[in-house]
Amino acid sequence: MKKTLSITLISLLIFSCSYSEKQKSSLDGVWESIGSSRIIEIKKDSFQLYDFSVISCLPVRKGLTSEFDDAIKVKGDTLLMKVGVMPYYYKRVDSLPELCLETISPKKKSDPVYNFEVFAKTIEENYVFMKLNHLNWDSLYTSFKSKVTANTTDVELYQLMHQLLKGIHDNHGYLEASDAVDQELEKQEQSIVDVHMKEYGDFEIADMVAAHYLKEDLTKDSWLIRWGEMDNGYGYILIKAMWLFADLQLTEADVNEKGYVDAYVSKFHQMDEGQYIEQERKAVAKLMDGVIQDLKNAETILIDIRFNGGGQDAVSLEILSRLNNTRRKVITQKLKYKAGYSPINAIYLEAKDSAYQKPVFLLTSQQTASAAETMALAAMSLPNVKRIGAHTSGALSTALEKTLPNGWHFTISNELFMDTTGTFYENKGVPVNAQLDYPEDRQTFFRSVANDLEGDKKKVLEVVENHLSK
Predict the structure, then answer these.
(1) Which of 52, 84, 87, 332 is the most buried (most CB within 10 A)?
(2) In which domain, by residue range, is 256 found?
(3) How many CB atoms lie within 10 A of CB 209?
């Protein structure tokens, strides 16, 4: 998830004007996003957020403006909203589009043709990699549209939408239907399991590697980050994910009913996204203060994110800031907007007074994805960090979350995430300074590591020693 999910330290536009009561009232009005196809209407202390396309305008969330805290600022006819480390800009418009004022009947909300059209138009207006993936959108759209009728069932509609997402090769494309659809799909599923081949989970293989690499395990109060010293005295940090750090006060009943991760996701979806991301950032910041303190005397540190599927960019950058002694630009970003792009935003990594400045080696693989790739991308700007292993997954764009009229949710990539020179690495992944021969297939790679943990460690250390001797 990315990149709903982001992630931390970013230089935002700082306005010299203070927050007087008059300036607070200037938030009132209708604001249209520059990219992302969103409209927000603010009236006094409340807001209503809409998703829109040329054929739809759907209310998706409302609440109090106090939820934004300092994450929302306005100057003239421009509103800046901070979500994690990402700045999103809105322009003031005269009024809500007429589509937003229309009441959609329950029958239309559930109409498969209408839902498909909203889905397709949202992709057409926001998907940023049409050209990169050599897509003929008109042909693709026409082909799928012909298969949707008023009699299309929910399961059939889901399958068609899912196939369309696969057809555009979006690394962050995701579709979530209703529980009833999920249950029906499970009934229809016929999976073939090879009982002779062990299947490893990301966290499972990560724990195996950490246990083998660490001679002295200093981990405390964390199941997501493991750290300590290797037998040669090097520091070692393994990071399993870039989310799940926040204490969301989950109830035991919710965890028992849904499982920890699903309960966690359900809880943060009830929160303002910016507030949730800030809780993730603060939690990992506190944890990393202890990690760096424990390893401050190590002559070099290995940071392993080879099995990290991502999470929040703010978490990635908060961790990386522990290696940074001066504020620097590390990433640039722009959104698909109409026929072109939004203005380019620069993302800055803040400095830490106690930043670790000795050599650091960041271990990545083709399974390093999403927000974990953000860490690798930003690390390209740090002089004391070398990247070793294999290029990352190539799924860097933040996932734009959208809601369909029938209540289903989906995500689409609408951003170009780039290095400081404007180069983006979608599909091909963030490159490494030293290549190791890792299988691209997920389970093949996991098995190759699990079956020879010592060999894996030796190969990594050979590369590290080679760089340190130069």
Answers:
(1) 84
(2) 202-468
(3) 24
Q: Which two tokens stand for residue 352?
A: 């830490």
Whether 401 is covered by a domain: the verdict is yes
Q: Are residues 165 and 212 in the same domain?
A: no
Sequence letter at residue 134 = H
Q: What is the pTM of this model?
A: 0.89
pLDDT value for 2: 52
Asked if residue 439 and residue 322 are part of one domain, the reply reads yes
Whole-angstrom Cα distance, residue 210 to residue 463? 18
Q: Is residue 3 part of a domain?
A: no
Q: How many CB atoms lie within 10 A of CB 111?
A: 18
Both 44 and 164 in one domain: the answer is no
Question: What distance in Å separates the CA atoms of residue 442 and residue 445, rounded to the nearest whole number?
Answer: 5
What is the number of structural domains in the chain?
A: 3
What's the length of the chain?
470
Q: Report pLDDT for 190.
A: 58
Q: Six-digit token pair at 300?
A: 């070099």
- Contact of 57 with 50, CB cutoff 8 Å: yes
CB atoms within 10 A of CB 454: 8
The whole-number mean pLDDT for each consecutive block of 10 residues of the chain, a chain of 470 residues, reads 39 32 67 96 93 95 86 90 88 95 95 98 97 96 97 96 96 92 81 66 97 98 97 97 96 93 90 90 97 97 98 97 97 95 95 95 98 98 98 94 95 96 96 96 97 97 94
Residue 392 lies in a domain: yes
pLDDT at residue 252 in the model:
94
Alpha helices, H only, 296-359? 313-320
Same domain, 215 and 138: no
| C-alpha torsion angle, residues 187, 190, 196, 198 (rounded to 10) | -50
Measured CA to CA in angstroms, residue 397 lies from 8, 312, 418, 469 at distances of 16, 12, 9, 36
Indicate whether 177 and 231 sit together in one domain. Answer: no
Contact 236, 213 (CB under 8 A): yes
Residue with tokens 């939408």: 161
Strand blocks (E) in 342-382: 345-349, 360-364
- Indicate which CATH number applies to the domain containing 380: 3.90.226.10
